[in-house]
Amino acid sequence: METRELGRSGIGVSRIILGCGNFGGVGSSPAFFGQGIRKDEAFRIMDAAWELGITTFDTADAYGGGRSERFIGEWLATKDGSVRDTIVIETKTFNPNEVGGDHGLAAARILRQIDVSLGRLGLERIALYLAHDFDPDVPQKETLHAFDELVRAGKVGAVGASNFTGGQLSEALAVSEREGFTRYEWVQSSLSLLDLDEEHGVLPICREHGLGFEAYGPLAGGWLTGKYRRGGSYPEGSRMTQRPESYERYENDRAYDALEAFEREALGRGVSMAGLATAWLMGEPDVTAVLVGPTRAEHLVPVREAVALELTSAERAHLRGLFE
User: How does strand 3-5 pair with strand 12-14?
Assistant: First the structure.
């Protein structure tokens, strides 16, 4: 699988990144710590992803209350040096690791949490480290100074920002330039055919400053897979039964019309809706890599479809037009 450099980091990531947010939980939500994907299935997913050529795994210190990082570390411990020398792990910090735990991007917390993550992962260095969210209570100068320390100490290869607004990202870049700190080399945000908000948010800033961009949520919480049908009930255990808030805006006839038309396009190409949606996103010029978060190893089949599917600019424009 093709790799691309993130910004000017000197670190390459596979075009598809394995999202491990549901290992041992459902993202960073304390209500689901200890649930989600069990360790044995997580191992199957990581094995299948590696066999596909996915060499970048994404996690966070709060995913599953720390279980996600531990599962990855235990999986790595079963592998030989060739895997450990090749894999690129990216993890994030901001959210609490336990119910009622502290959170944020204060320097002392960052310097503590990096050691927690290194211990869980069984690594001496984490290639890619992100601020998982913007912290309004801590000056960006303090946060970036701490990240700069980690890079200089060799504990981290490069740093990035997740879920920042365009204004917050611009401020961070200005602080880094003024203070001589390592800068955020990439951004991780939601992007899909159903969610193109970042085209007017961080993407223009990434383009201007030569930053990388990782797109998470390529299937819009399952809406671009066909699992949600007009007039039907939501499947048990689906995102709409667990954390629906971000996706309730799609519950309308206009979205269902677009999804049904998109399904016909996928059928006409002999691929799944998920495969077509991922292929479309991989073709976006500003997208460095796409994060996928399968809950079973079999859910990686659309990745194979996406990697093999080359869409022309006219086809991409047509598919986009279905949702406008």
Answer: antiparallel
User: Which residues are marked as active site?
Assistant: 63
Dihedral sign, Cα of residue 122, residue 60, residue 110, residue 207: positive
pLDDT, position 117: 98
C-alpha torsion angle, residues 136, 137, 140, 145 (rounded to 10): -150
What residue type is assigned to position 94 of the chain?
F
Nearest by Cα to 297 from 54, 129, 45: 45
Residue whose C-alpha is closest to residue 160's, from 186, 126, 189: 186
**Domains of the chain by residue range:** 3-222+281-300
CB distance 145 to 175 below 8 Å: no
User: Helix or strand or coil: residue 190?
Assistant: strand
For residue 146, give both structure tokens. Answer: 């701490």
- pTM, two decimals, is 0.95
Angle ∠(316,198,106) on CA atoms, nearest 5 = 145
Q: What value does the mean pLDDT of the chain take?
A: 96
Domain 3-222+281-300 falls under CATH 3.20.20.70: no
Backbone angles phi, psi at 199, to 5 degrees: -60, -20
Residue type, 141: K
